[in-house]
Amino acid sequence: MTVTVRFAPSPTGRIHIGNARTALFNWLFAQKHRGRFIQRFDDTDVARSKQEYADSILYDLHWLGIFQDATEYQSKRFDHYDAAVERLKAAGVLYPCYETPEELDLRRKVRRTRGLPPVYGREALALTSAQIAEYEGDGRRPHWRFLLPNFVSDPLEPMRTEIRWNDLVRGEETVDLASVSDPVLVREDGTYLYTLPSVVDDIDMGISHVIRGDDHVTNTGVQIALFQALGAVPPGFGHHNLLTTVSGEGLSKRTGALSIQGLREDGIEAMAVASLAVLIGTSESVHAMPTMAELADHFDPAATSKSAAKFDPDELLVLNRALLHHMAFADARDRLGALGIGGERAEPFWNAVRGNLDRLSDAAQWWKIVNEGPQETSELSDEDRDFVRIAFDLLPEDPWDAGVWKAWTAKVRKMTERKGKALFMPLRLALTGLSSGPELADLLPLMGREGTLARRP
Ligand code: GLU
């Protein structure tokens, strides 16, 4: 069996790191099993879905390193859902209901006071054709419910009916079909809720594993029954824990919280986002994986905890630094070029500064310092200024090599008897304008003798 997974967001906003977690779980699962990854846009809600959001989701996924084998839109597949509706009706497992939301609400309350579970009582099954004609005459349109197979012969006498599956993440799972209402599959206006199109697509697209957030666990019980009603073998399922903010709130596409776009624009590396999105809330320690292949090696859905995982954006910066510190020039070259950092000094420059960067774009500031001199004026005491002047007079002659800093400071130490911080700090301030930064031994050859002399106070 070819492993085939899908990531199925509704294109109603930009995706956030929690959505990326679902996408990555699917992607890495497919990678591990040499399977296929299908992008499905759940856009049956045509009023709220927008192509621009679908495009932005594709852009964000590509940025993260996720590439689809196929892209499908539910809005182009209504005829498949209509056909499934006809099959379910013909099988007698899709029935019309005429209750208004207020009537349903009242019924739920009554059931509660009677100590019954607040599920739909299937009253519509008892409607006579005269009653139906009356509703229709009043202009009421039906919504359609799927009759869950939780009874022996009388649907009005449901009984405990366990649907079981071995969840890729959570292990043995059970949903009792008597504890849930017959789901509405089609609304009064003929539009589809998510349940039926999702199952029809999973069947048609040969989905072998459905991997999604654990807010769908109960849906899975219902969906397995629907797969069976449509004559299909249900796929495997995996439900990962959800991410929350540090204060425990859920992430929402609508609020734009921690959108992938926002993180990208903030200079966070794609692999920092991917590493955290995948490893947080698992028994693996969270550390920066430089490539998707390495992340795949550390990915184990069964190592995911069942409780929600708190997501702290500050952790992203820690991972970002770690990735930049080890990033090879070849992997940074193009983006450095876009910042105006090029030529033959670009590689030694990158190797000199990468250990001091929070974000790759911070390199631009160091490029300026190296080429133009300090960008901030540093206050040197009179004594330090005199020391720096003497030191500059001792600068070795050209040509300079990688050992120039060592040779220079040895000479300065000997002549001035300064050492340690008293020696380095005034030189660092004079050369860069800052009290910390990359090794001066690496920066000095990049500045060159002329450039260095121009910084003489
Ligand atoms: N559109 C659904 C959602 O975003 C898909 C759930 C699923 O993967 O089945 O919740």
TrEMBL record:
<dbReference type="InterPro" id="IPR001412">
    <property type="entry name" value="aa-tRNA-synth_I_CS"/>
</dbReference>
<dbReference type="InterPro" id="IPR020751">
    <property type="entry name" value="aa-tRNA-synth_I_codon-bd_sub2"/>
</dbReference>
<dbReference type="InterPro" id="IPR004527">
    <property type="entry name" value="Glu-tRNA-ligase_bac/mito"/>
</dbReference>
<comment type="function">
    <text>Catalyzes the attachment of glutamate to tRNA(Glu) in a two-step reaction: glutamate is first activated by ATP to form Glu-AMP and then transferred to the acceptor end of tRNA(Glu).</text>
</comment>
<keyword id="KW-0547">Nucleotide-binding</keyword>
<dbReference type="InterPro" id="IPR049940">
    <property type="entry name" value="GluQ/Sye"/>
</dbReference>
<keyword id="KW-0436">Ligase</keyword>
<comment type="subunit">
    <text>Monomer.</text>
</comment>
<feature type="domain" description="Glutamyl/glutaminyl-tRNA synthetase class Ib catalytic">
    <location>
        <begin position="3"/>
        <end position="316"/>
    </location>
</feature>
<keyword id="KW-0648">Protein biosynthesis</keyword>
<dbReference type="InterPro" id="IPR008925">
    <property type="entry name" value="aa_tRNA-synth_I_cd-bd_sf"/>
</dbReference>
<keyword id="KW-0963">Cytoplasm</keyword>
<dbReference type="Pfam" id="PF19269">
    <property type="entry name" value="Anticodon_2"/>
</dbReference>
<keyword id="KW-0067">ATP-binding</keyword>
<feature type="binding site">
    <location>
        <position position="253"/>
    </location>
    <ligand>
        <name>ATP</name>
    </ligand>
</feature>
<keyword id="KW-0030">Aminoacyl-tRNA synthetase</keyword>
<feature type="short sequence motif" description="'KMSKS' region">
    <location>
        <begin position="250"/>
        <end position="254"/>
    </location>
</feature>
<dbReference type="InterPro" id="IPR020058">
    <property type="entry name" value="Glu/Gln-tRNA-synth_Ib_cat-dom"/>
</dbReference>
<protein>
    <recommendedName>
        <fullName>Glutamate--tRNA ligase</fullName>
        <ecNumber>6.1.1.17</ecNumber>
    </recommendedName>
</protein>
<dbReference type="InterPro" id="IPR033910">
    <property type="entry name" value="GluRS_core"/>
</dbReference>
<feature type="short sequence motif" description="'HIGH' region">
    <location>
        <begin position="9"/>
        <end position="19"/>
    </location>
</feature>
<dbReference type="InterPro" id="IPR014729">
    <property type="entry name" value="Rossmann-like_a/b/a_fold"/>
</dbReference>
<feature type="domain" description="Aminoacyl-tRNA synthetase class I anticodon-binding">
    <location>
        <begin position="351"/>
        <end position="455"/>
    </location>
</feature>
<dbReference type="InterPro" id="IPR000924">
    <property type="entry name" value="Glu/Gln-tRNA-synth"/>
</dbReference>
<dbReference type="InterPro" id="IPR045462">
    <property type="entry name" value="aa-tRNA-synth_I_cd-bd"/>
</dbReference>
<comment type="similarity">
    <text>Belongs to the class-I aminoacyl-tRNA synthetase family. Glutamate--tRNA ligase type 1 subfamily.</text>
</comment>
<dbReference type="Pfam" id="PF00749">
    <property type="entry name" value="tRNA-synt_1c"/>
</dbReference>
<dbReference type="GO" id="GO:0004818">
    <property type="term" value="F:glutamate-tRNA ligase activity"/>
</dbReference>
